[in-house]
């Protein structure tokens, strides 16, 4: 597990110690610290077209269109012939998140989902594997005869974006391909709300089994909401799932409003914390909020300027560390907020994946806590059953920095980790 900051103590391998074994790319539940992510495996395709192309294929402009596989193939082949495709990106909110986690932690993660059994050069599956970190263990994917999902973004000369979604076999994940031991030995399990709308598809039951397995062994469950429209359509089912299984909920401000009815992120977070233990809300140019619970007896006051908005002095205890409500004798709600890193980039090249980047930083901190507890169980850092290694305020800094890195590049996934001196913005980051 790679920790941000300068933490190297030994710079050599003592000759008195046995030589280390060759590294394994497959996760070993009893040895490794890792997270597990379940996702609808999908590739994002970006293409430039004119209005005539949309009319020819009867694709409504400016909307997200669910298209049959055969029709999507015809559209895709014509885009190739016209040399209209500019980029292929591995997609999926959870795929993005665990890829980013493995880049940040320089450590293993496990992806659960489907993958084409036969991967052809240039296929969607080929591009997915090509753009995913080698530290992501794909050995537990379910092979399918068809293709993984494909999302085609078609940009017309006026800048309007039109989406064609081809699910193909991405929802065919069977319950039998959920490895219980892998799930129950993880530092955290992360899923999205998207499978909740996949009615009558195997992936819905597969996700349920993952959640049940995690809950049996008290593995923290993290859920990312999809889009505002998804939340509006499935609000009751999402809230039921969150209340029963989820410890950490991640979303943007629009999804938070759809879930709670509050447009103000603080008020939305306050409401959501009645259902779960921690919430991460990204709010674009406003920055991001990380809110949760801690034990009243161990709360820590901030030395940062006190902020007031819809909640007075809301960041007063942001130097506290997150805890599960059930582990608190007297829990209090804690709120932390941070403005965009460096005021935000001068030029935003891509907004897709910024929230996934912030979530990967939070997961890294949670996994670091899990790892440190294993190797230093008597450390004062574990006098309480904390959910994360750092304080709310410090996790905000880290998540904010990772989001910035996504915003200044074209892709929705990190291509490399943060600069060594900037991993935590200060060397004492992990010691607070």
TrEMBL record:
Entry-linked Pfam families: PfkB
Record's InterPro entries?
A: Carb_kinase_PfkB-like (IPR052700), PfkB_dom (IPR011611), Ribokinase-like (IPR029056)
On whether Ubl conjugation is a keyword of this UniProt record, the answer is: no
Annotated GO MF terms: kinase activity
Which part of the chain is the Carbohydrate kinase PfkB domain? 132-297
Q: Which SUPFAM superfamilies match?
A: Ribokinase-like
Per UniProt, the keywords (alphabetical) are: Kinase, Transferase
Query: Which PANTHER family has this protein been placed in?
Result: CARBOHYDRATE KINASE PFKB DOMAIN-CONTAINING PROTEIN, SUGAR KINASE
- What family is it from? Belongs to the carbohydrate kinase PfkB family.
Protein's UniProt name = Inosine/guanosine kinase
Q: Name the species this protein comes from.
A: Rheinheimera salexigens
């Amino acid at each position: 597990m790679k920790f941000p900051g300068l933490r190297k103590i030994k710079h050599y391998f003592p000759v008195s110690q046995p030589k280390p074994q060759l590294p394994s790319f497959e996760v070993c539940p009893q040895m490794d610290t890792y997270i597990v992510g379940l996702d609808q495996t999908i590739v994002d395709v970006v293409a430039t077209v004119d209005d005539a192309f949309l009319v020819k294929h009867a694709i409504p402009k400016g909307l997200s269109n669910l298209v049959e596989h055969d029709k999507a193939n015809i559209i895709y082949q014509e885009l190739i012939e016209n040399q209209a495709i500019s980029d292929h990106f591995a997609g999926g909110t959870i795929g993005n998140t665990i890829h980013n986690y493995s880049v940040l932690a320089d450590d293993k993660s496990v992806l659960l989902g489907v993958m084409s059994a036969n991967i052809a050069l240039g296929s969607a599956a080929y591009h997915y594997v090509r753009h995913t970190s080698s530290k992501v263990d794909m050995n537990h994917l379910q092979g399918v005869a068809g293709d993984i999902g494909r999302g085609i973004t078609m940009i017309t000369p006026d800048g309007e974006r039109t989406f064609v979604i081809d699910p193909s076999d991405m929802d065919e994940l069977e319950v039998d391909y959920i490895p219980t031991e892998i799930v129950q030995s993880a530092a955290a399990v992360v899923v999205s709300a998207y499978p909740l709308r996949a009615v009558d598809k195997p992936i819905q039951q597969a996700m349920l089994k993952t959640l049940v397995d995690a809950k049996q062994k008290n593995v923290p469950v993290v859920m990312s909401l999809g889009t505002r429209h998804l939340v509006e359509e499935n609000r009751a089912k999402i809230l039921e799932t969150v209340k029963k299984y989820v410890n950490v909920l991640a979303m943007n401000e629009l999804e938070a409003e759809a879930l709670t009815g509050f447009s103000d992120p603080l008020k939305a977070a306050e409401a959501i914390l009645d259902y779960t233990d921690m919430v991460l809300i990204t709010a674009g140019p406003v920055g991001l909020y990380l809110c949760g619970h801690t034990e009243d007896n161990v709360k820590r006051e901030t030395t940062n300027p006190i902020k007031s908005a819809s909640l007075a002095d809301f960041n007063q205890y942001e130097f506290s560390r997150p805890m599960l409500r059930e582990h608190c004798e007297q829990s209090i709600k804690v709120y932390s907020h941070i403005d965009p890193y460096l005021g935000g980039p001068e030029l935003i090249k891509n907004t897709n994946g910024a929230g996934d980047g912030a979530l990967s930083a939070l997961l890294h901190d949670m996994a670091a806590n899990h790892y440190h507890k294993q190797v230093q169980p008597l450390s004062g850092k574990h006098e309480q059953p904390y959910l994360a290694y750092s304080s709310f305020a410090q996790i905000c800094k880290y998540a904010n920095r990772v989001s910035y890195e996504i915003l200044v590049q074209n892709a929705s996934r990190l291509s490399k980790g943060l600069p060594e001196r900037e991993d935590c913005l200060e060397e004492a980051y992990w010691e607070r």
